[in-house]
Specification:
This protein folds into 2 domains: 1-104, Serine Threonine Protein Phosphatase 5, Tetratricopeptide repeat, CATH 1.25.40; 106-208. It contains 11 helices and no strands. The protein has helices at residues 2-8, 16-28, 32-46, 54-69, 73-83, 87-104, 107-123, 128-149, 158-167, 171-184, 193-213. The N and C termini lie far apart (65 Å).
Length: 214
Amino acid sequence: MKALRTALIEGRPERPQPFFEVARILDSWNMLEPARGFAERGVELAGADLLTDNDYISGAQVYVRIMTRLRAHEAAFKRLEMLASEPAVFQRVLTEMGAAVKVYFSPQEKASFQAFLEKAAAVGGAGGAGHCRRLADLEARWLFEEMMVHPGERHYGSSRFSKLQEQRMKYDDLAHKLLAYWNVYPASKRTNGLLIEAAQAYRSGKTRRASWRR
């Protein structure tokens, strides 16, 4: 770690990128606590430009990944939410959080993370409707990925995924993804329920499209 500091930081003006790079390397070595310190210093140096300067966005992703691996994702979310002005960039950074959860969290921790997403999307916070929508997008993507990896296991959120997409009137997406889920669902556990639900979603989407044309 001293060698990294000497090579990338010492004797140079303090800039966010070298701190993020040291954090990234330490993360790859699973040295998470020291990585956190470097990542947080990078965030401090970037300040209000963290999510607006393209040179810093990858550093924000490193920060989120490390904080999520340390189970400090809620603190990271609150910190970044205060800086977020571009919803697409915020979503891009949050996707890194979901990727870390997928790899490193246990099933129980994933359930807790899902509850955090639901709460954050419902509250909205400083980001307002745009951030709520993108949190819901992240939750839907994460739930569907978990469904496809663990087909037929009820605790992996197929009912929550359906409810979420229905609430957002994403009927076409729901229909297509339920069919994809049906295709990987264990044959020994299959019933007509998924196909009926997919057909209902398709009809709801068709009705909604027809109402637009009136």
